[in-house]
Structures are given as C-alpha cells and as structure tokens.
Amino acid sequence: MAAADLTTHPGHLARRLQQAHYLLWNTMVSEETTSPQFAVLNALVAEPGLDQRTVGERVGLDRSTIAEVISRLSRRGLLDKVRDPEDGRRFLLRLTEEGARTHRRLTVRTARMNQVFLAPLTAEERTVFFDLIRRVADAAEGLRDPGDPLPAPR
Amino acid sequence: MAAADLTTHPGHLARRLQQAHYLLWNTMVSEETTSPQFAVLNALVAEPGLDQRTVGERVGLDRSTIAEVISRLSRRGLLDKVRDPEDGRRFLLRLTEEGARTHRRLTVRTARMNQVFLAPLTAEERTVFFDLIRRVADAAEGLRDPGDPLPAPR
DNA sequence: CGGAAATACTCAGTGCCCTGACTAAACGGG
DNA sequence: CCCGTTTAGTCAGGGCACTGAGTATTTCCG
C-alpha cells in the first residue's frame, strides 16, 4: 500500500518538463537539430576552437555523450574537427559557415519557442523559475567528486 | 556572433536538472531500478491490474517507451503481464511480491534522496518550485493534439 | 632521460525517449 | 454479418545519457 504522489517528486517533474520541452522543440524549432546539438553550436559560437572535453563541460555532457553529438554535427558538416598540433590528444572544434548559419537560424526560433513554453508564467515567476532550478541543479552537481559526501565510500 | 545565454533557456535547465537527479538517484536510491521504473511500480501499487497504455499515461511515457520499461521489469520478475480475457489486445499488469517489496524499499530511499536534492530550497520555495514546473509542463502537454494550435497543419 | 600518472578520446553495453509503420483484436454501422 | 475504423501492442530506427574499460599522448618526477 501507500503509493507515492509523484507530483511532489522533483525527479519526475524534471522528466516531464524535459519531455514537454522536447516536444515543443521538435514542432517549433527543428526536427533535424536537437536542443543539445544547438547547445554545442552555441558554445562554439561563444568560444571557437574549444576541444571536445571543454565543450562537454560548457553544455553539461559527459565525454561519451559529447563525442556522439559532435560526430553527428560533424557528419552533417556543421563543424570541423582537427587534431591540436600542440597536443595530439585533443581535437579542436570550429563551426563551418553552414554551422554558423544553422546557429543563427535556430537562435531566433528558440527564442520564439521559449516564449510559448514560458507563457504560463509571469515575468517575475520566470525569474524565480530559473533561479530555483539553477540552484537545485548546481547543488546536486557540486555533490559529485569532492571526497564522496555520501555514505558509500565507493 | 551573439551566442545565447543558456542559463535562461528552460529546456537546457530542464536537462541539467534531470541529469543531476539521475546522478543522485543512482548513488542514493538504486543502481538497478531507475526512476521511470519506480514510477511504473508506483502506478501499479496505486491501481493494480492496469493495462500497459494506461500505465504509460499515468507516468507520462509513450507506448514504445512504456513497453521497454515493462519488459525490463517483467524480465526481473517484478511484475506479471497477462492477456486480458475480456479484451485480447490488452495486457493486464500486476506487481509480484518481489515487485511490491522493491517498491516499499525504494519509497523510503526516494524520500531521503528528495530531501537531499531539495536541500538548497526552503519549504516555501519547494512549493513554488513544484507549482511552476507543473504549470509549464502541463501547459506544454496541453499544446499537443487539440486541432494543432501551431502553424503547421500537420 | 625514463617510467608512472594524468589526460583526451574511443568503444561496448544499458537504459530512456520519441516517431512512424505494422499486426492483431474489438467495435460499430449498414 | 461484414467491412471499415479505432485501439493495444510490437518493431525498426534515431538520438540522448551514463558507466567502465581500453588506447594514445602528454606531463611530471625521480
């Protein structure tokens, strides 16, 4: 007995929120380029020539996932991937003209989508919304490496 | 030029929030049973004998995804799946003793994890947090079928 | 200088998540 | 009663996300 009320479970809400966003992105922004892919393009507009790992860090993706995303973008010719001559382990990433064009196009569509997505909230509520989510996510992320603050000593 | 600030993009925040939760779940709740799997167990505790589609509806998963999740739970012997004698299309789902036990065990761990996850927020902030996310997610979900409120006529 | 440790990336494996196309069962009106 | 429509579930295919193991390169230290 005693089933839990999932509407008070942040994990469940986070999943539902992301699904809702995924859906809206698909219909209002792009069917080819996903939201994580856009985040990568965006990071490279801000800082061209980043290596794979750092891009992953910027957008919040682990080494495996970022490798897949980049391989797809590269396959579609949206970015170039070249060995760093100074450090043979790294790949340096840079948008192609086509990649930059895609980023520009999606930027305006994304802004439109965000308006629709956030329509149920007032301006003040949006600020609070961002702040609360950011605080929870940041805190949980900080709970990672540093000496394993949780019971299990690994 | 003009890279966007992703910290004001709800989709990006939602993804980061979910990742943070995934991580915490893994370390504090279970490595075998995932959060969506727990949601399914929970739905069946509340309403035993539901069919697959309805469970999916309750926890917010489409028919394909719910089929995979259920197949995994069934493989591990946490639930039984039998043809509805009254309607040969449906499968009726019911937790096994082991499934019910798993649900009980995870329920207490989940509560502990939620405390940690929400620790950065005060009690009032948590209420707001739930409310805002729910409103955004519900609104976006409502934006689905009904006559396609968006440009594209399908 | 040479070997151990750290670092960037790859690869295999698992699970979630969606769409679109398909099969089988049930339903409903002529 | 039969045929068309709806409905439950399956299957193939693409993408995101993580872990753990493995490779190559660089770095650091004795």
From TrEMBL, chains A, B:
Q: InterPro entries given for it? A: HTH_MarR-typ, MarR/SlyA-like, WH-like_DNA-bd_sf, WH_DNA-bd_sf
Query: Which SUPFAM superfamilies does the UniProt entry name for this protein?
Result: Winged helix' DNA-binding domain (SSF46785)
Source taxon at top rank: Bacteria
Show the SMART domains listed in the entry. HTH_MARR (SM00347)
**Xref: Pfam families:** MarR_2 (PF12802)
UniProt xrefs under PROSITE patterns:
HTH_MARR_2
Every HTH marR-type domain range: 1-138
| Protein name in the entry | Transcriptional regulator
Organism name: Streptomyces djakartensis
